[in-house]
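Task card 7
Instruction: Convert sequence to structure tokens.
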Amino acid sequence: MPEEIKTKIAVIAEEQGLQDYIALMLIGENYEVKAYPTQEDAFQNLETDLPDLIISDFQSPNINGLNICRILRKNFLFLYTPLIFILSDKDALNKAKLIYAGADDYIYRASIQDDLILKVKLNLYRVSRQHDINPLTRLPGQASLIKELQKRIEAKNLFAVSYLDLYKFKQYNHRYGFAKGDDVIRHTGSLIIDALKEFGSPSDFLSHPRSEDFVLLTLTDSVDAIINKTITDFDKSASSFYDEDDKKRGYLVIKTRSGDIEKIPLLRIHIGITTNEHYAFQTPAQVLQIAGELKNFAEKSFPDKSMHVKERRKNYPFY
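Output:
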């Protein structure tokens, strides 16, 4: 049987007693809990172990709830992560400030025992119903991507769109199973995030609209460095997802429905990149079509290695 995937909850609380009390209640409900004593400690670790929900004390010497809200809501990884805060009193102004800063809910310290689990379950249910999140990577999905693209097109600022795809991924799934395929997808997402941390900017946006596809919106000045690092890191690590026989052989052996034997190359990553440096982006559909076509060209032209193809045409429409 595949290992059970537990819902991850991060707890930010400086007071050890409060931290332990909340953690014990959550663990009792079969949640996976990571606790952080300060907001700085949380910021250093949350991106590497993305939680499904965050519970934080509102105010202590090393915790500022409003600051936590503002910082996390500027990061695409936490756009829709439910944020619940623990309030010591019923000050209406604090509640209003939190909600406007991006919090989803609050619990009074005196009623944690009665309200905590209910609030957690309600917020997890709400986010699963209302928000566009890929359940595998916790990244924004197709609807969020379209909305973000439209906003940037209307702003008319320069930006780059990268369409990333794993070559022959369906055949990998067929050979190794969906659980291993999910590991590859999560790993790929984490590699892109690592590249963004090193070369990206706060305005970058990464989405996982479907299956093995990722779409990245970045500044035109940084897109090459981000994509090159992603490809390099992927190629270095891809072999770890194969058994020794397949690694030595250098390809998979798959039996087709017709009974033929097909040789499938090991996983590659192909990327199409377009920018609005030379012609205007008009609609999200236009942008994704162009980036997708460039990605397809990379796949057809370079099937034996990971590669990106960047738009070189100067005018649109293309003739």
